[in-house]
Amino acid sequence: MNAGSLRRLILQNLGRNKKNFVFSGVGIVAGISSFVFFSALGSGIKRVVATEIFPLDANRIQVVPSSAQFDAWIGSRTIDDEALGRLAALPGVAAVYPRMKLAVPATMALIGTDIPADDLAKLANLPGMTPSMVEAVRKLQIWMEIMADGIDPRLVKGDAAFGAFADPPAGRPIPVLLSKRLVEIYNSSFAKTRSLPPISEVLIPYVPALPLTVNDSYIDRGIGGPKLSERIRVVGTSHHALLGGVTMPLDTVRRLNRFFAGEAAGRTYDMAVLEVSSSDKLSAVQQDVRRLGFDIDTSQKRMAESVGFAVTLVTLGFTLLSLAMVAVAAVNIAHTFYMIIYERKREIGLMRALGASRRDIRSLILGEAGLVGAAGGALGILLGLGLCVLLNSLAVRLLPDFPFKPQQFFGYPGWLFAGGMTLAVVFCLAGAFSPARRAARMDPAGTLSGR
Amino acid sequence: MVKLKDVSRKYGRGEEATEALRSVDLDIADGAFVKVVGTSGSGKTTLLNVIGGLDTAYSGTAEVAGRDLKTMSDRELSRFRNRTVGFVFQHFHLLDHLDALRNVALAGFFSDGDERRSLERAEEVLVRVGLGDKLTQRPGQLSGGQKQRVAIARALFNRPRLVLADEPTGNLDTRTGGQIIGLFQELTREDGLTVVAVTHEDQLFRQADRTVRLEDGRVAEDRRT
After folding, report:
1. pLDDT, tens digit, for every residue of A37-63?
2. Considering the entire predicted model, what is its pTM?
3. Nearest to B81 among A346, A347, A353 (CB)
4. Please, which residues have CB within 8 angstroms of residue A329's CB and are 6 or more apart in sequence?
5. Interface pTM (ipTM) of the complex?
6. Is A351 close to B110, i.e. CB distance below 8 A?
């Protein structure tokens, strides 16, 4: 039997048994829709984790001074300019971006009444700014200890959207970057509970320069030496910025460290971010880095992996549940086909008498099952997608803001649709396999004579 | 056309086994109209099934149209049934959801598969059996005789050389049965078809040119009429 005849016979038979197939296809639709729903949810959450909460650069590794105490013979364990040169010379390393912590503490006093009236007026005119927010800013009285570090501007290229990210001339405010995660936490909890304006691309250009006192602490009263009054200006947000503080240009921190802690402090780095030319060289570069006596900071990666693993585990649980539903539907399909074959046994005998081979009969039954699976899969995918869209819209509108609350809770990778269709078809074929085999092996003479 | 040598067929195993055919030897020439008679259970239908390649669990040799059926694969046997043999059954075995035209064209699904050509051929054979005005009627709208004519048209669809009819008049009244027998006679005379028709009523098929009587699976009588 050629493909055209097979197709016509399949469609003819499906049309005759519509009701049976609709009932047995319901399970497939339900199973595939839940598969699509939970997989899309898991994919969406993993995307938020990977891009917003713990963003990872696949081709970058963070090199830190070695914490081991017994391998002094290996060489330097601190990261200085010479070490940066050695790291840059490693095969496969495309670039090295050093980071340096500010060696002395710093404090910041945010006093709303100190903000010039003109600046407050500008804030009041910003879109989304309410009078209560302006009033909250005016009443602000926060004294805080601030951590700071310096970063190679090349690493955060593009993040400083509202000003140059370079060591400023004397008297000018220091440009700083805020951590995107810190901003998210501030916006969704701190700002909300205190009626403060959220930090956004609209607000940042209008945030006035803020006072920063370097070599000062509210906690450690033993800090000695001169204090330095500076001003900082937020020029953007970055995933690379310090989570619990501000990130300055590397040259600024180098200058401040030299001033407060001596020449050596201006040449010693706390971390170097290595950019590897391609991910297949990552492993070799990591080995070389360790051979040079440095450690690799994988805490961010480990956290991302842990959260990702937890999400995967939960998603897998629900996916297995969906698969169980599809499997039950496949049993139902098998039952339906056994019933249909019993009803059609004379017809199958007749087809055999008219020239159908065993293979033709098997193809016919499996073709019907495949089509039921494909239709069930397509409907299941549509239903699952509909549920995703509906729930996403409800979640975005009704759920209260929380850190990293996404606008899109669901992810729709290509494999999801291909996987949904494949599962539906494969399970239907599996369900119909045994009935198809039985139909193909029927004794035509026996079925025609009613035996 | 048909050469059976020492053909036996048993159903079941051990002590409960029944022998439907016992060492049957039979030669049927091209263009013959053979009537196979016998009481119920004498092995008539089994004989037709063996000749038609529907039953291959026999012992002995069955050669039809020059092919030893035992040596053929399922695919070859299916092709043989499609191209060389046409079956007509007592209970017609028409599909209720299809009209006469499509019931006849069903055989086309397993040959060249071209729908338009199949329908044209189906119409041609329906006209040939006198049902040119019933093309779109479903089995439920046809009389017993008309149903059997549709079944005969279906058997003729692929221009077979051999038609095997199992009690083709069993469900018909005498007059209609006579018409069907006349049709078979016409097919052998005009188209040169070989027809083997099974009946349990000896009085029917007087037009057949040979009568084979089966008793307990054996050929008890083989005479020219």
Report:
1. 999 998 898 888 877 777 767 788 889
2. 0.71
3. A353
4. A24, A25, A26, A27, A28, A30, A31, A376, A427, A431
5. 0.90
6. yes
